[in-house]
Design brief:
It contains two helices and 15 strands. The chain has helices at about 55-60, 70-80, and strands spanning about 5-10, 15-20, 25-30, 35-40, 45-50, 80-85, 90-95, 100-105, 115-120, 125-130, 135-140, 145-150, 155-160, 165-170, 175-180.
């Protein structure tokens, strides 16, 4: 597809790409086989994020464990199934890779969405954008739970979450980096 910009996200076994064509392509990283195409954004997709299983499985696994139990393996596969996207169409979407469909869409940003992530606990989506805000969405309740308006004095362009602590870091065009406590 057409592309002068691209967004990528990876896990140990998956790769997702997107760009100006508004289509997300998900591939098996080992076989390089395309698993699905996800369509639903009306503008360029700026950001993609998988729910990574590294943090959740590492935090939950006993220190002496070297093999995954069947339950851990099932949980890891479930976690691997979700992808978040943020777009210039002002939406944040949560996708099921297995079903190749959009599970939910949030339209609360007032300008382009620049960054998305799925909280390591799998319960929240977090986004940032050109409206200078950071938003936290409750996946189970399917609603915006918290908005940090004026998080930066200019566009908020990136976010990252600590894997075990409730700490979010954001960066913006204002050339500042800020830490946020998410309780």
């Amino acid at each position: 597809g057409e592309g002068t910009s691209a967004s990528t996200a990876t896990t140990a076994s998956l790769l997702a790409t997107s760009g100006n064509d508004r289509v997300i392509m998900v591939y098996d990283a080992e076989s390089r086989k395309k698993l699905c195409e996800l369509r639903g954004h009306d503008h360029v997709i700026e950001s993609l994020a998988f729910l990574t299983c590294a943090a959740t499985s590492a935090a939950d696994a006993p220190k002496s464990a070297t093999k995954l139990t069947p339950e851990e393996r099932r949980r890891k596969e479930e976690i691997r199934d979700y992808l978040a996207s943020g777009s210039r169409d002002r939406t944040v979407k949560l996708w099921s890779i297995k079903a190749a469909s959009c599970l939910m869409s949030f339209e609360s940003h007032e300008n382009w969405v620049r960054g998305v992530l799925i909280h390591p606990n799998g319960k929240f989506l977090i986004s940032c954008g050109d409206d200078k805000s950071i938003r936290v969405y409750d996946i189970k309740a399917n609603r915006c739970l918290r908005t940090i308006d004026g998080a930066h004095s200019h566009f908020v362009t990136s976010i990252a979450m600590h894997h075990t602590l409730p700490v979010l870091v954001s960066g913006g065009v204002d050339q500042s980096v800020k830490c946020w406590q998410l309780d």
